[in-house]
Amino acid sequence: MGCAGSTPKTDVNSKKLKKPKPWKHTQAITLAQLKQMREEFWDTAPHYGGQKEIWDALRAAADADLELAQTIVDSAGIIVSNSDMTLCYDERGAKYELPKYVLSEPTNLIREG
């Protein structure tokens, strides 16, 4: 991890993660539908470019709480352009765009039962 007090060079442009702003899906969806959308995104995202390890790290960070997510992106060398993680880059400059629905739940999520 390097010595204490040394910061990785990526930190210069990288923003600290913040909780995503509340958002509304085009129509109310159930948790099951949200989970399916997320699965489909993570299954197809790596095919659009970027490194698989970075996609895996982003997925782990998306599922983690803020503090752990910050640790994950820092250790993977991910440069966070939008503090809600919707836009990130890796050290080679490849772009990773994450839809809001993989990062947080919409305000119009239908809670079943």
Write the layout of secondary structure elements.
Layout: E1 29-30, H1 31-44, H2 52-63, H3 66-75, E2 79-80, E3 87-89, E4 95-97, H4 100-103, E5 109-110
Parallel strand pairs: 1-5
Antiparallel strand pairs: 2-3, 3-4
Helix pairs in contact: 2-3
Domain DC-UbP/UBTD2 N-terminal: 14-112
Protein name: DC-UbP/UBTD2 N-terminal domain-containing protein
Region (Disordered): 1-21
Helix content: 25-40%
| End-to-end separation | 46 Å
Spatially, the strands of the biggest sheet line up as 2-3-4
What CATH calls the topology is Bacteriocin As-48, Chain A
Rg from Cα: 15 Å
**Which stretches are poorly predicted, pLDDT < 50 over at least 5 residues?**
1-10
- Name of the CATH first level: Mainly Alpha
Structural class: alpha+beta
Mean pLDDT: 90
The CATH architecture can be named as Up-down Bundle
Element order: H for helix, E for strand: EHHHEEEHE
Percent strand equals 5-15%
CATH superfamily placement: Ub domain-containing protein, DC-UbP/UBTD2, N-terminal domain
Shape: globular
Treating each run of at least 4 consecutive H or I residues as one helix, how many helices?
4
Largest sheet, if any? Answer: 3 strands, antiparallel
Number of strands: 5
Number of domains: 1
Organism: Eragrostis curvula
Protein name: DC-UbP/UBTD2 N-terminal domain-containing protein
InterPro entries: DC-UbP/UBTD2_N (IPR032752), DC-UbP/UBTD2_N_sf (IPR038169), UBTD1/2 (IPR039869)
